[in-house]
Task: inverse folding
């Protein structure tokens, strides 16, 4: 049994061995594996984040669609209401117009009737005067001179016209 | 008792008994020569001046073999790396990641990444060396010294003379080609030195040279005129320095002692009863080899964490109490 001793060259050799192993393992083992582990965890983190993002996006777009549907619904409702209103208005307007037109027609017709009546009355009156003169000539051929005759007729006409006017009103 | 009378169990028991008897009668070899120092395999190769001559010893060869095995595994694992690991990559990655988690758990994320290569290398190298030391061929195949030649028989194969110790002989010893690396004091010592150099380096780089060295040589309070506490600080610094040196010694001898003792235990057991009985002891040595690797690595890690964490707490506490005292006054 030899003495327990430190063999300096052996020690140095082992230190060099160990340093070499440390360096080799660092470049061959730890660096690539740590890089791979980091990459993997990074990837997992990323994909999880992406999934989260996608979920959020989906939720948001769903919300968006809901909102849009709501808006469209409201707009449709509003359009319907508006259309009904417009229809109502148009109907009222048409009715009013028709009424007005009818009234105008009635007024016009009345005026026409009035005019025609006036005309007819005038004609009748003239004819009547003529007839009366004719009749009177026949009845009182000579008893009246020309002057008295005209005067009489005049009186009768006025009376009749008064009567006609009062009758009219 | 019925269990023992089943044919299969009886057969196994009979087989074990047979092996024990055969081993005891025929396979008892000479007891292994227990050498504290690693045996030289070559004459002095070159001189290192005052340090001595460089000789390749069997423990250095074993260390090289461990390095080759580790390198082989590493290359196999990292040659075609995939994001989704397979086979060797998966296996090696699992080990590395487990260890990385351990280191980061103790030292934190940033320091963990700094400490990891050294701590992992210590662990892997010690573990590989210890376990490889249990392989057949370690300690049994080697050179034959001139003086021992008489105890050997020889036969010749393609011109080479091969020597062997005949069955039944109780004399003779070989100079083994391979000797478990950590049974040579120099290997644990080399690692202990490396570990402590790194620990001191990390301590200095984390705290600054003066701040770190004040752990071992603290004259602040002495210069401030506080003589008693100043001397206490000096004394504590001395104790710290001795502790630091003692770590190297304890690192070295813990590993060396455990593994060397394991070798002796196995040698003695296989001398007494060569077969069967020695198997549980191999299991024990596997366990010890793993535990020693873990202890060495984790202690290095712990020392590194202590070194970078600073040691000025007591002064802070003192300053705070002084502050409180003045404000109270």
Result:
């Amino acid at each position: 049994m030899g003495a327990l001793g430190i063999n300096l060259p052996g020690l140095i050799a082992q230190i060099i061995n160990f340093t070499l192993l440390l360096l080799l393992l660092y470049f061959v083992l730890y660096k690539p594996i740590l890089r791979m582990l980091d990459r993997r965890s990074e990837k997992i983190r990323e994909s999880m984040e992406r999934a989260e993002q996608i979920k959020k996006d989906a939720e948001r777009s769903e919300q968006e669609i809901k909102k849009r549907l709501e808006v469209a619904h409201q707009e449709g409702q509003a359009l319907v209401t508006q259309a009904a209103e417009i229809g109502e208005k148009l109907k009222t307007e048409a009715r009013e117009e028709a009424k007005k037109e009818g009234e105008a027609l009635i007024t016009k017709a009345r005026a026409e009737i009035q005019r025609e009546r006036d005309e007819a009355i005038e004609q009748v009156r003239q004819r009547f005067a003529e007839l009366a003169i004719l009749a009177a000539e026949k009845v009182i051929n000579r008893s009246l001179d020309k002057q008295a005759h005209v005067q009489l007729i005049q009186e009768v006409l006025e009376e009749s016209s008064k009567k006609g006017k009062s009758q009219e009103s | 008792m019925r269990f023992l009378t089943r044919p299969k169990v009886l057969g196994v028991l009979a087989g074990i008994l047979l092996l024990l008897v055969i081993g005891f009668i025929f396979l008892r070899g000479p007891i292994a020569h227990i050498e504290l120092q690693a045996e030289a395999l070559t004459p002095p190769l070159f001189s290192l001046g005052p340090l001595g001559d460089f000789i390749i010893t069997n423990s250095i060869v074993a260390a090289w073999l461990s390095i080759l095995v580790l390198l082989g595994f590493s290359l196999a694992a990292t040659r075609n790396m995939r994001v989704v690991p397979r086979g060797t990559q998966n296996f090696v990655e699992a080990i590395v990641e487990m260890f990385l988690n351990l280191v980061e758990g103790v030292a934190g994320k940033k320091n963990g990444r700094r400490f990891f290569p050294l701590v992992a290398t210590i662990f892997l190298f010690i573990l590989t060396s210890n376990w490889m030391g249990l392989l057949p061929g370690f300690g049994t195949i080697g050179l034959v010294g001139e003086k021992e030649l008489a105890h050997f028989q020889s036969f010749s194969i393609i011109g080479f003379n091969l020597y062997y110790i005949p069955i039944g002989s109780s004399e003779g010893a070989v100079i083994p080609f391979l000797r478990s690396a950590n049974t040579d004091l120099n290997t644990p010592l080399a690692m202990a030195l490396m570990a402590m150099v790194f620990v001191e380096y990390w301590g200095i780089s984390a705290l600054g040279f003066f701040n770190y060295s004040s752990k071992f040589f603290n004259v602040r309070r002495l210069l401030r005129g506080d003589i008693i506490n100043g001397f206490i600080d000096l004394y504590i610094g001395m104790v710290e320095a001795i502790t630091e040196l003692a770590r190297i010694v304890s690192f070295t001898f813990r590993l060396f002692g455990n593994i060397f003792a394991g070798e002796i235990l196995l040698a003695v057991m296989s001398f007494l009863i060569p077969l069967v009985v020695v198997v549980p002891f191999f299991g024990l040595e596997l366990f010890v080899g793993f535990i020693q690797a873990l202890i060495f690595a984790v202690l290095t890690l712990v020392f590194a964490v202590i070194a970078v964490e600073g040691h000025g707490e007591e002064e802070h506490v003192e300053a705070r109490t002084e502050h409180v005292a003045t404000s109270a006054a």
In short: Chain B is about 65% helix and 5% strand.
